[in-house]
Design a protein that fits this description.
single chain; 280 residues; mainly beta; four-stranded antiparallel sheet; 1 helix
């Protein structure tokens, strides 16, 4: 069941999502990996560091040491290939740039600690099917296989078997309901026969403790969505969830809490940015 409550205003920006993560972690509610070396143990608060570059439509993924890799997005100079590693203790530190400038891309961590970045919109407005992998051990990027579809505004999430699920997004000028999976063992993508219950872009995905994935909200190109799908990574099937978000939300964030519930925050209902949140 969803409970609605007021929160800070979240906009469609990876940096707002990071703020949500910081707040929940400080409250002791966030499920996360890595050490707490970037927190003040006496006050149980994060320690400020250098600021992030001001950009929107980037993508962030957790690294094994508890920091986060933040990639691409749109800033003052257009679409960016920049990459930063953020920790509360050290702030943001630049690392090697991506091979391709992109915004609205998907990203997710691989089991070995590397991070996959896939798709997005490049300089000039074209949507790409290219993908690349960041290795925090070397600080470098290498090319990965190409996606089955070029897509932007998709969502990526780690699933069973070390794979990465890429869901929805804009492809060929319209939102898609298609799914594909990246397999690091073969460095390649393959399409799934299962489809989302509706085409989605700018939606949120989150892996649940039971191995399934919630795919929530987004936009179908005409309106923001409040519906939720459940992807079963063992069976490669999609099942619509009977319950909906309290408000349609595109560009929302989703975070798993320590008690297994999911916190959906912010986004836009198509008319205004939302300062509300749902807990599932």
């Amino acid at each position: 069941m969803f409970a609605s409550k007021k929160s800070i205003i979240f906009k469609y920006s990876v940096y707002a999502s990071l703020l949500a993560v910081a707040i929940l972690a400080t409250a002791g509610l966030l499920m996360s990996a890595g050490s707490d070396q970037d927190r003040n143990a006496a006050t149980n608060t994060a320690v400020a560091g250098a600021a992030l570059t001001a950009q929107s439509a980037g993508c962030s993924a957790n690294l094994k040491d508890g920091s986060a890799l933040i990639t691409g997005g749109h800033g003052a100079n257009g679409t960016s290939n920049g990459a930063q590693v953020f920790s509360a203790r050290k702030g943001a530190q630049s690392v090697a740039p991506m091979l391709t400038a992109r915004e609205g891309h998907a990203c997710a961590a691989l089991p070995d600690g590397r991070v996959l970045v896939a798709g997005g919109t490049t300089n000039g407005g074209g949507v790409t099917n290219s993908a690349e992998i960041f290795d925090p051990a070397t600080g470098q990027w290498t090319a990965a296989g190409t996606m089955v579809l070029a897509r932007s505004g998709a969502a990526g999430v780690s699933i069973s078997g070390g794979r990465i699920l890429i869901a929805g997004g804009d492809s060929n000028g319209a939102p898609t309901a298609t799914l594909e999976v990246f397999d690091p063992a073969t460095n390649s993508f393959h399409a799934l026969s299962a489809l989302l219950s509706t085409p989605r872009r700018q939606h949120a995905t989150v892996a649940l403790p039971n191995g399934k994935v919630l795919i929530a909200g987004g936009s179908n190109g005409a309106a923001s969505l409040g519906s939720i799908d459940i992807f079963d990574s063992a069976a490669n099937t999609v099942t619509p969830l009977g319950k909906k978000l309290s408000s349609p939300r595109a560009g929302l964030s989703a975070t798993v809490l320590l008690d297994g519930r999911v916190y959906f925050a912010g986004g836009s209902d198509g008319k205004q940015d939302l300062n509300s949140a749902d807990i599932y």
